[in-house]
Amino acid sequence: MQRTNERFVERLPLLLPRPIYAYLLSALFCGIALGLRLSAQRLLPIGYPFVSFFPAVILSTFLFGMRPGIFAAILCGLLSWFFFIPASPAVGFDGGVVLALIFYAAVVGIDIALIHLMQRANFNLAVERERSRALAENRELLFHELQHRVSNNLQVVAAMLSLQRRHVDHELAARALDDAASRLSLIGRISRALYDPSEGGQDLHAFLTRLTEDVVEASGRGDINVTVSAPPDLTLESHVAVPLALIVAEAVSNAIEHGLPHRGGSIDVTLEDSSGTLTLKIADNGQGIAPGFEIDKGSSLGLRIASALAGQLRGQFALHPRPEGGAVVRLDLPAQAR
Question: What angle do CA 121, 127, 131 make, to 5 degrees?
Fold first, then answer.
C-alpha cells in the first residue's frame, strides 16, 4: 500500500486530457467549499469566512498544480468576500476586512508554494530513481558480460594447456599442465557461480555440494563418498566465498589424491558458524599423514595454494591427523574476515 501511495504522489500534479478540466474541477471544489460554508453558517460564530475554502485551494493545488491552485485561491477569496465578509457602507471594506484578506492571501500563498516545491522534489526524486534503476540494470548487464568473458577466457587457457600437454613427454611436466588446466577451469566455474553483483551471496550448502560432486567426478573416482554439512541459509559475500570454495576444492582433491589413492573412502565437509567465527573441516578416512608433516615443506601444491588463500582471508589453515584414522583439514576464519 505504501509503495502504491508513493507512486501516486510522484504522478502529481495529474495530467488531464485538457487543461481546462483542471480549472473546471477546481471551480467545482470551490463550489463544494461554498456549499459547506453556507451549511455550517449557523454553527460557526461571526467570522471564519475562509474556513471551508482552504481545503479547496490545497486540494486543487495538490491534484492539478500551481496554476489551478492559484485560480482556486482567487475564486475562493472572491466567494468568501462576497458571501461572508460584511462591507462597510462608506468605503466598501474596513481595516478588519483588509487584514482578513491579507491573512487569507498569505496562508494560501504559502500552501501553494509548499505544495509546488514538494511536487518538484518528488518529480526530481522520481527522475533520479529511474536513472539509478537504469544504471543498476546496465551495471548488472556489464557485470554478467564481464564474468562471462573472464570465465570463457579461463576455459580457453585451460583448453590450451590441455592441448599443450599432448606434446609433453615428461611425466612431471604433463602432470603440472594437467593440474594447471583443471585449476583454471575450476576457478572459472566457481567465479561464474558465486560472484553476485548485488552482493546478496549464495546458499553455501547447495553450492559446496555441487562443487564437491564436480571435484569427485573430475577425479574419475566412483568409490569416493562426500557429505557436506553447513548451517541452513548460510551466505557469504563473493570476496570470501570464492577463496573458501577454492580451499574446499583443493582440500578434497588432496584427500582423494594422497589420502585415498588406491581405495575408496569417505570425505566429510563441515562448515560451522559459531559466534561469527566460521570453521571449515574436511575430514577423510584415508591413510593419514606422515609424522612431522608440514604444509609449507610438503609436496602438495594444492595444500600450499589452500594455505595461501587462507592467509588472504586472515584465517588459520592446518592439517592434522584424524584420531580414528585419516586426516583433517581445518580452516578458521575470524568474524572480521566475513
Answer: 140
Domain range for residue 335?
A: 203-338
- CB atoms closer than 10 angstroms to residue 235: 14
Q: How many other C-beta atoms are found inside a 10 Å radius of the C-beta of residue 287? A: 16
Indicate the number of domains in the chain. 2
- Please answer whether residues 243 and 291 qualify as being in contact, where contact means their C-beta atoms are separated by less than 8 angstroms: no
Pairing mode, if any, of strands 265-274 and 224-229? parallel
Position 112 pLDDT exceeds 90: yes
pLDDT at residue 124 is higher than 80 = yes
- Most confident stretch, 86-100, 102-116, 127-141: 102-116
Of 172, 178, 174, 234, nearest to 201 by C-alpha is 234
Residue 3 β-bridge partners: none
User: Which pLDDT score is estimated for 198?
Assistant: 52
Say which amino acid occupies 138. N
Phi-psi region of 48 (alpha: psi -120 to 50; beta: other; left: phi over 0): left
Q: Are 214 and 87 contained in the same domain?
A: no
Task: Compute the distance between CA of residue 310 and CA of residue 331 in angstroms, rounded to an integer.
Answer: 7
Do residue 84 and residue 213 come from a single domain? Answer: no
Report pLDDT digits (tens) over 225-252.
999 998 887 777 777 877 888 888 888 9
* Structural domain ending residue among the three candidates 89, 115, 134: 134
225 and 108, same structural domain?
Answer: no
The rounded distance, in Å, linking the Cα atoms of 113 and 229 is: 63
The answer to whether the beta carbons of residues 271 and 234 sit under 8 Å apart is yes
